[in-house]
Write a structure and sequence with these properties.
By secondary structure, the protein is mainly α. Helices cover about 80% and strands about 0% of the residues. It has ten helices and no strands.
């Protein structure tokens, strides 16, 4: 967060929530700082004061949302009472929440914007890497507890699961799930596969 954002958190959060609403409605290309200011009911100058530009506002929005979600994911993957399969089940539950909240739309919009904007790409890479690192750590713990992850290293498990989730999010936004593609159901099957591994290790 910027220095100004730390000084005036109430106005900043109001603007960020407004930006999220406009982004969900209009997409990144159609989003304007003027529309966000109108949505928030504040002068346009407040956006420039807090964030400097549309890009600065979007990066602040992403960091604002991602910090909340990363804290949630960190707590879940650190929960020693949950097996790896149960952590993936919980991640699927969280995905349903994140689609409803608009976070998935924000992430996917910023991924697309990052292809032509190095500053956005840097922030998005750091955020995604934080999530992948949590999965890798959980996979390493599962490997220690249950033995081999089959032909996969923990790093490969992290890459595959993160790609599966981000890809499913993208296809869900395209409407393919409503056309019969079982995206979220398929993600939940990952937990089923892990359960077989865990059950096999416990009976072996």
């Amino acid at each position: 967060m910027t220095r100004a954002l730390a000084k005036k958190p109430e106005t900043s959060v109001t603007l960020l929530e407004a930006a999220k609403a406009v982004l969900r409605r209009s997409g990144y290309a159609g989003l304007s700082t003027r529309d966000v200011a109108a949505e928030a009911g504040v002068p346009l100058s407040q956006i420039h004061y807090h964030f400097g530009s549309k890009q600065g506002m979007m990066l602040a929005l992403f960091e604002y949302l991602n910090a909340q979600l990363l804290d949630r994911q960190s707590a879940m993957f650190a929960d020693a009472t949950l097996k790896f399969s149960e952590q993936l089940d919980r991640a699927c539950d969280y995905l349903d929440d994140d689609i409803a909240s608009g976070y998935v739309r924000v992430l996917q919009e910023l991924i697309a914007a990052s292809w032509a904007d190095a500053a956005i790409a840097k922030v998005v890479r750091i955020a995604i890497r934080g999530w992948v690192d949590l999965i890798i750590a959980a996979a390493r713990e599962a490997e220690r507890a249950h033995g081999s992850l089959g032909p996969f290293t923990p790093e490969e498990v992290g890459a595959l699961i993160s790609n599966a989730f981000i890809g499913a999010e993208s296809l869900q936004l395209l409407g393919l799930e409503s056309k019969g593609m079982p995206l979220r159901r398929s993600l939940r099957r990952i937990g089923d596969l892990l359960r077989r591994m865990e059950d096999g290790a416990s009976t072996g």
